[in-house]
Specification:
The protein is of the alpha/beta class. It has nine helices and 14 strands. It has helices spanning 36-45, 63-66, 69-76, 87-91, 152-158, 172-177, 183-190, 198-209, 228-241; strands spanning 5-11, 18-22, 27-30, 55-57, 79-83, 102-105, 110-112, 115-121, 130-136, 139-144, 163-167, 215-219, 251-254, 262-265. Helix 4 links the parallel strand 5 and strand 6. Helix 8 packs across helix 9. The longest helix has 14 residues, at 228-241. The chain is globular and about 50 Å long. The model has no long low-confidence stretch (mean pLDDT 96).
Length: 266
């Protein structure tokens, strides 16, 4: 049977995170970091209505990932999937969504219609943060943002993905030299429960290039401590030094706060 996996990041960064994923039978959102009205507006660009959304999966409880969740889920009676270790932290920030709408999951894989979902823990300063891989038959897509570092477990879980959204939050030197950031904030971002730097991202991309990944989307860039050009350029330069040429061995692009590429993986 013909398979289909349609993916589009509708917003990425500290202003809000939102990704749409579709199979032949399932339509889901990963995070809901924009207002409910803005989520609806951006879904309309894909000719999708909010009533069609089968579930919203939440990575963690920080506001740039859940800003519109309460209104959206309560208005459209959408199921909300969250790891059981982060359930109460998320629920404490919501006022309108009915508790019966929540679907806690554990470390086991689960299925939403014909979409297979794997989750794995990420190191971030939230109560609990999940990374995700989505699979429809043989095609796999992985999304991991908001993490201080990668490890073998994380890399093994996303290996073989044709498309990966991965955080390239900051350039370390820009962050260290930023006069407006207090030392404590810099230490938080640079720490193992903070955010992934361009160079840490490049090392992960190098590994992914050897496991069959064809497309990388750099995500969750800092407005103050990175630029799309710097993230793209420094990561491509690192890969070239290690024998991997962007455009030939792997493709790299950058997400933003606006809707980006629509990937139809068939």
């Amino acid at each position: 049977m013909w398979n289909k996996l349609r993916v589009c990041n509708l917003s990425s960064g500290s202003d809000g995170n939102l990704t749409y994923i579709e199979t032949l039978n399932a339509k889901i959102l990963l995070d809901a970091g924009l207002s409910a009205s803005e989520i609806t507006k951006r879904l309309s660009l894909l000719r999708v209505t909010p009533e069609e959304i089968d579930a919203v999966l939440i990575t963690h409880e920080h506001m740039d990932h859940i800003k519109g969740l309460d209104v959206f889920a309560s208005k459209y009676h959408t199921k909300v999937y969250v790891h059981n270790k982060g359930l109460w932290a998320l629920k404490s920030k919501l006022k309108k969504a009915d508790f019966i709408q929540f679907v806690p999951f554990d470390d086991m894989d689960f299925i939403i219609k014909d979409l297979y979902v794997s989750n794995f823990p990420l190191s971030h300063d939230s109560v609990y943060c999940s990374g995700f891989s989505f699979k429809e038959k043989t095609k796999k897509v992985s999304i991991l943002t908001d993490l201080g570092y990668t490890n073998d477990e994380v890399l093994n879980r996303i290996a073989g993905s044709v498309l990966v959204y991965i955080e390239a939050n900051h350039d370390e030197q820009m962050l260290k030299n930023n006069p407006t950031y207090p030392l404590m904030l810099k230490q938080r971002i640079l720490g193992k429960r903070g955010h992934l730097s361009n160079m840490a991202c490049a090392q992960a991309v190098e590994y992914l290039a050897h496991t069959g990944t064809k497309q990388i989307m750099l995500a969750h860039l800092s407005r103050e401590n990175n630029t799309p050009e710097l993230a793209y350029g420094s990561i491509c330069a690192y890969l070239k030094e290690h024998g991997i040429e962007e455009g030939k061995h792997i493709k790299i692009a950058v997400t933003s706060i606006y809707p980006s590429y629509v990937f139809n993986i068939c």
